[in-house]
Design goal:
The chain is α+β, with helices and mostly antiparallel strands. Helices cover 24% and strands 36% of the residues. The radius of gyration is 16 Å and the shape is elongated. The chain has a single domain, classed as Phage minor tail protein U (Alpha-Beta Plaits), CATH 3.30.70. The protein has a five-stranded mixed sheet with strand order 1-2-3-5-4.
Length: 143
């Protein structure tokens, strides 16, 4: 699994109607899902572009078995929302969970498994923005 394969696979799995139908349409022409390689909103607080999803590859390490070398990566997906209750945030974060947890990722060579490692909900220091952080472990070995 190469880094660019991983970014593409995560983006493609998140860029589905189950996730995007719950995101802001205020991003046009930008996508509502951002990665380090995708355009970023310059100041989301001013423009009010909520909710949105961002992700980054936290680590991308080698993995070895008796005869094969693969990759073991940790992907962090953040769901950002400004809603008085947590319900809308949990709807989007559940869609993200369903889009990545234990699903096939054909864009990754030798993909074995993607599984959730941690989910955390918090309120940002501004008191308005809520955040769900989901961490996924992605494992692959070449065929």
């Amino acid at each position: 699994m190469r880094h660019d394969e991983l970014v593409t696979a995560v983006f493609n799995n998140l860029n589905v109607a189950a996730v995007t139908s719950n995101l802001s349409s205020a991003y046009a022409p930008l996508p509502a899902i951002f990665s380090a390689d995708a355009p970023q909103v310059s100041d989301a607080q001013v423009t009010g572009n909520f909710p949105f999803v961002s992700f980054l590859i936290v680590s991308d390490q080698g993995l070895a078995t008796n005869e094969k070398f693969g990759m073991d990566a940790l992907v962090q997906v953040d769901v950002w929302h400004r809603t008085p209750s947590m319900k809308a945030l949990t709807v989007v974060s559940r869609a993200v969970f369903d889009a990545l947890n234990r699903v096939a990722m054909p864009d990754i060579t030798g993909h074995i498994e993607t599984r959730v490692e941690d989910v955390n909900y918090s309120t940002e220091p501004d008191g308005k923005t809520k955040r769900a952080t989901l961490e996924f472990r992605v494992t692959s070995l070449p065929l």
